[in-house]
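Researcher: I'm preparing a figure for a lab meeting and need a structural model of a single chain. I don't have an experimental structure, so a prediction will have to do for now. The sequence is pasted below. Please return the structure as tokens so I can convert it later.
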Amino acid sequence: MKDINLYYLDLALKEAQKAFLKDEVPVGAILTKDNQIIARGHNLRISKNNAIYHAEIVAIEKACKKLKTWRLDNCSLFVTLEPCLMCAGAIIQSRIKNVIFGAKDDKGGAIISKYTIFDDRKLNHHPHYVFIDHPECRKILKDFFIKKRNINNL
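Model: Understood. Here is the structure written out token by token.
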């Protein structure tokens, strides 16, 4: 059987593909509790004209509505790209227990790349995190930005 983390990362990748088709930066997220999916999300910043509609924020908002609480204790977030500082803050604020991501973000990643916010002991919550180098999570982003550069160079 496939590793459970890879299984959910593959589902997050399907969310990223939805974003790609909408001409959004292709990032997808899956939120689980007790190994059950409670929310899905993908980037919607462009289509919703809202700067905060990253995949993680969309999934967190849906999960809070479904569970009728802002506390997402014992939940796990699977996301195709390392969360940015804003999303890392939302993860901390919502008390998500685990974060698993499939691609690093050298320019804006707030977990292991640019910042290490989850390791900051001055904060009140410290999600457990796992980076799983998932080639398809990197590839969809690379393909998206190659496509964007080619369109802009016409």
